[in-house]
Amino acid sequence: MLLKLNDKLLHFLACLAITLTAGELCAVTAGVTKEAAGWMYKKVGSGWAWLDILADAAGIAVGSVLRRLVFDY
Questions:
Q1: CA gap 16, 27 in Å, rounded
Q2: DSSP string, 8-50
Q3: What are the tens digits of pLDDT across the range 52-70?
Q4: Within its chain, how far is the Cα of 65 from the centroid?
Q5: CB of 5 within 8 A of CB of 52?
Q6: Of the candidates 22, 20, 44, 21, which has an alpha carbon nearest to the alpha carbon of residue 33?
Q7: Of 62, 60, 71, residue with least CA distance to 23
């Protein structure tokens, strides 16, 4: 259980960081690409996980709000 929670936290933080540095489109692309690679090549990950996509989306949403509040984009 802790490992799965840690995985979701990593997805959230990675998409948050990508959103803050490169933008929302890059973060969406990275999240979907990672999940697609996990689905196509089982050795890369555990397959397609909707909860990972949800964690990615949460990171992107928080990052997007922070970009607009802090950096005034």
A1: 8
A2: HHHHHHHHHHHHHHT-HHHHHHHHHHHHHHHHH-TTTSSS--H
A3: 999 999 999 999 999 999 9
A4: 15
A5: no
A6: 44
A7: 60
All residues at 6 or more sequence positions from 20 whose CB lies less than 8 Å from its CB, including other chains: 63, 66, 67
Burial class of residue 14 (count of CB atoms within 10 Å of its CB; 0-12, 13-18, 19+): middle
Contacts of 28 (CB under 8 A, 6+ apart): 56, 60
pTM: 0.86
User: CA–CA distance from 50 to each of 46, 53, 66, 69, 71 (Å)?
Assistant: 11, 5, 24, 29, 30
